[in-house]
UniProtKB/TrEMBL annotation:
The keyword Cytoplasm does not apply. GO terms for molecular function: glycerol channel activity; water channel activity. Belongs to the MIP/aquaporin (TC 1.A.8) family. It is a multi-pass membrane protein. PANTHER family: AQUAPORIN OR AQUAGLYCEROPORIN RELATED, AQUAPORIN-9. The keyword Metal-binding does not apply. Keywords: Membrane, Transmembrane, Transmembrane helix, Transport. This is Glycerol uptake facilitator protein. It is found in: Membrane. InterPro entries: Aquaporin-like, MIP, MIP/Aquaporin, MIP_CS.
Length: 242
């Protein structure tokens, strides 16, 4: 999943292959839908520590499964990021030669493995705004996942097409939040590439407190909020379901 999503961002950054955040969001959305279809009978198809945490808090996933899921998510993200480095290392070097940048400064190339903000031309996205944007995006995503998988929700679509709606939701969120923060929305998707970025030479910029707050802490806090909302709404849904 990370391979295709981050790969789309890499081709956009290095080759101008996509028109904007919405097109990259489409790649992410389609990839996530396919991944859910492929894995949901083998696992719960979370792919995201924030989603796994929300599922544990809501009682849908046992707490003992949390470390296993998160470890698998992190390993997958690291492997995907490493393979992408093999793909694009020469292109990154060419980008440095053409732009005069290097691995000590933030650039379009570094953003592929080390998510950054602001990334707008006028740089108006502050850390609190970026963290809030990431948190809202994750909160919406998890709330939609809960709504699509709650049996008491009489308006939910068939389970056969629920992954498509989850993918569409990701696409819409990336189209909205992406221009501000690159739309991490997933601590594993963010931390895995950062680890690889640190190892290949971006050690001075790979990790910062601002990045940790925006791309890891904010999504996890949003996960807690989404699970809390479910605890309030779920009894009312079940009351109406009866």
């Amino acid at each position: 999943m990370c391979f295709f999503g981050i790969g789309a961002f890499a081709t956009a950054s290095l080759f101008g292959a996509h028109g904007g955040a919405f097109e990259i969001g489409m790649v992410w959305g389609i990839t996530i839908a396919i991944a859910i279809y492929a894995a949901r009978n083998l696992s719960s198809a979370h792919f995201n520590p924030a989603v796994t945490l929300a599922m544990c808090l809501s009682g849908r996933t046992p707490w003992k499964d949390l470390p296993i899921y998160v470890l698998a998510q992190m390993i997958g993200a690291v492997i995907a990021a490493f393979v992408l480095w093999i793909f694009f290392a020469a292109s990154v070097q060419h980008f440095f030669e053409m732009s005069g940048a290097d691995m000590t400064v933030v650039s379009k190339a570094s953003a592929i493995w080390c998510n950054i903000f602001p990334n707008t031309p006028n740089g108006v996205v502050s850390m609190p705004v970026a963290a809030f944007a990431e948190g809202v995006g994750v909160f919406i995503l998890i709330t939609v996942i809960f709504a699509l998988t709650e049996d008491a929700n009489l308006g939910k679509p068939s389970n056969n097409i629920a992954p498509l709606f989850i993918g569409f939701t990701v696409t819409i969120i990336i189209g909205t939040v992406g221009p501000m923060t690159n739309a991490g929305l997933n601590p594993a998707r963010d931390l895995g590439p950062r680890i690889v970025g640190h190892l290949v030479g971006w050690d001075k910029i790979a990790f910062s407190w601002d990045a940790i707050i925006v791309y890891t802490i904010a999504p996890l806090l949003a996960s807690v909020c989404a699970a809390g909302l479910l605890k309030v709404i779920e009894p009312l849904q079940k009351l109406g379901y009866k």
